[in-house]
Amino acid sequence: MRRRAGVGAVHKQKLEQEKYKDKGTVIQENQFEQMTKQMEVFRLNLEEFATKYKNEIKKNSQFRRQFQEMCSSIGVDPLASGKGFWSVLGIGDFYYELAVQIVEVCMATTHKNGGIIGLDELRDRLIKARGRNKQHQEITIDDLLCAARKLKIFGNGFCVIPVGEGQYMVQSVPGELSMDHTAVLKLVSTSGSAFITLPSLMEQLNWETTRATNVLNSMVTEGLCWIDKDHKKDVSYWFPSMFTECIKSS
Amino acid sequence: MGEVQWPWQYSFPPFFTIQPNLETRKKQLDAWRSLVLDYCRLHKIFIIDVREGEHLPLFNNTAISRKLSPQAINTVLEVLLSTGNAGMVDKSSRSRWYVYWHTVDEWATIVYKWAQDNAMVNTVCTFYELTNSSGDLNGLDEGILVKALKVLEKRQLAEILTLDSGSGVKFFS
């Protein structure tokens, strides 16, 4: 005959469950402690490593990238922390310096490109400005991206815009670019030319006249592009920031 | 005579359309201003006729088949006017312009310096002598020369004279 569940059985069950729970918490705590210890050790090692190879990190671009990757995989950002251990190390200084130089290049070219610049052009100009020393020359696109992203803290005056195919542009004028603006930049940048016309924009992005016209007009207003009225063809919108002669001009 | 160093804008098609955005237009007209001055200095051009503008490579880049319309040329010249680098030849028609790659004041100084260097102070010399001398004054447009001499008259350093053989000037010390 099957025993019917009584109050005792219920109590017993409850007790068991509580015991399981307690044990579980203990195990969890143990694991957590261990993990924390491991991370602490890892962090210590990493810091030791960073101190030891500080100069190497500054000089060698490949090394720098790998170090960055290593840091970000454990959630340490040697750039983000302005206080404490990392700032004393001066790892971030390399990027701060780079960030300042990026701002300088952007300011110096705004009169030509209206405040957007391709990352490749930025790199060329920056390297030219940094002097001949080999360690000043080995600046990778990764370094620039890393440094440029830090500039976000100054508000929307600075941002990095991905324009497809591993290409980036840096915007250095106040005023956020909308998705539509970015789409246009992307389209022009991948087209290999420096201009776009209204019909071609509408066709390629499947936009209505109003939407396309608004975007183009606002980009003219922002000074990002120039218009070309050639009576034989459609009005075309030209971006100095993507025009080879402008990029190459000193 | 060297070649003009064309700025990057010269091959940028929209450079030949006056830009609607004020700030962009300012940059564009600044670039035009220096280009016009460089070009005219190099080719010793003293007068630009707006109607003939497209015959100058300056305003007509055949490589990209873009040219500056006469109206746009006027806009550019008005910028030069505002900086003292251009003036209308004839106030009634706005198509012929002097281009002063030296401002009139600068020309006056250059003329007077020529007179000093060539021991012409306190002497009468003809316009022909001035504009056929070697140096900066060679080929100088007579209209501009007269304007420069009038500046010197104001500074009481010269007096324009009418001679039998044409016009002349007497420089004072």
From TrEMBL, chain A:
Subunit and partners: Component of the endosomal sorting complex required for transport II (ESCRT-II).
GO function terms (MF aspect): DNA binding
Similarity-based family: Belongs to the SNF8 family.
Pfam families on file: EAP30
Organism: Cinara cedri
Full protein name: Vacuolar-sorting protein SNF8
Gene3D superfamilies from the UniProt entry: 6.10.140.180, Winged helix-like DNA-binding domain superfamily/Winged helix DNA-binding domain
GO biological processes: protein transport to vacuole involved in ubiquitin-dependent protein catabolic process via the multivesicular body sorting pathway
CC terms in the record's Gene Ontology section: ESCRT II complex
UniProt keyword list: DNA-binding, Protein transport, Transport
Annotated function: Component of the endosomal sorting complex required for transport II (ESCRT-II), which is required for multivesicular body (MVB) formation and sorting of endosomal cargo proteins into MVBs.
TrEMBL record, chain B:
Protein's cellular compartments: Cytoplasm
Residue ranges of coiled coil: none
GO MF annotations in UniProt: DNA binding; protein homodimerization activity; structural molecule activity
Alphabetized UniProt keyword annotations: Cytoplasm, DNA-binding, Protein transport, Transport
Record Pfam families: ESCRT-II
InterPro entries attached to this UniProt entry: ESCRT-II_cplx_Vps25-sub, ESCRT-II_cplx_Vps25-sub_N, WH-like_DNA-bd_sf, WH_DNA-bd_sf
GO terms classed as biological process: protein transport to vacuole involved in ubiquitin-dependent protein catabolic process via the multivesicular body sorting pathway
A Gene Ontology term for the protein's cellular component: ESCRT II complex
Entry keyword Transport: yes
Similarity comment text for this entry: Belongs to the VPS25 family.
Protein name: Vacuolar protein-sorting-associated protein 25
